[in-house]
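Limitations

Structures in this collection are predictions, not experimental determinations, and the ligand pose is part of the prediction. Treat each record accordingly. The example that follows, with zinc ion as the small molecule, is included so readers can see exactly what is and is not provided: the inputs are given verbatim, and the output is the predicted complex.
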Amino acid sequence: MLLPGVDVDLERLIVSPELLVIEAAARGKPPRCPDCATPGRHIHSTYWRTLAERPVTGRRLAIRLRVRRYFCDRTRCGRLTFVEQVGGLSECHRRSSPGLKR
Ligand SMILES: [Zn+2]
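Predicted complex:
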């Protein structure tokens, strides 16, 4: 309900008078390497990204999103790792979500 159409698991919701924090983990299919299109199979690591969002009911909304970094298994590919993106929520090198930018 909070993140319609976004493929994530909601892990925690923190509500304070000024701030709403949603912590979620990406759970979509492994992405393909952006350079050679080999599907990711082996997870290198995970990390948290913070995305600012639109205010909701007078509170600032922040989304903390745990994403996975994969190895590229193709030996001839120059890219060692790549990070998954969550459709509708994260895009490469963006700190705010598409909703906030609009
Ligand atoms: Zn690759």
